[in-house]
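Sample pair:
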Amino acid sequence: MNKKIENIRIEWDGPYSLTDIGYDETNENYKGKVNPSLCNEYTDFGIYQVYGYHPIYGNDVLLYIGQSAQQTFSKRLSQEGWEFNADSKNIKFYVGRLFAKKQPSSEKEWDKMIDIAERMLIYAHEPARNSSNILSITRNRAKLKEFENIRIFNYDNYRSLIPEISGELWVKDFEDYNGVFNSKEI
């Protein structure tokens, strides 16, 4: 029996700079500063992308995908320490607000949707600074199976992300890949 596909839609907004999220070079108390336009407790949570310099991959590349579930984007991004990146003046943040045909009715359901969307985006895109998350997902077949009936649609300013990600495709692809390399016939 096939389970119904759950579509998660993410509307992306940005770019935001370190200054846009509240960073002030002259103020040592950066972590306490927040941007009022990214701290609405009812709308400013979801997934975020970080772009910037990487010593191997170059400039303006996808570095990290994270989530802001129990706090606003502004608060979460101010905790990350991106001001210490080698080229911090060129760091760019994109925030993604999730929506679905049937909106979650509880905070717990929202958190679950945000969590699975973050893990699926990390798995599909493999950002350089998410290496531990990538390994934890690929080494856990049960976590991969969670993606099977999920489809993510990225809208608006989604940058380097794939516009549509089908969990069924990614799980099947991983199983085929593992089947080939774990086969005793090779």
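The first helix runs from residue 73 to 77.
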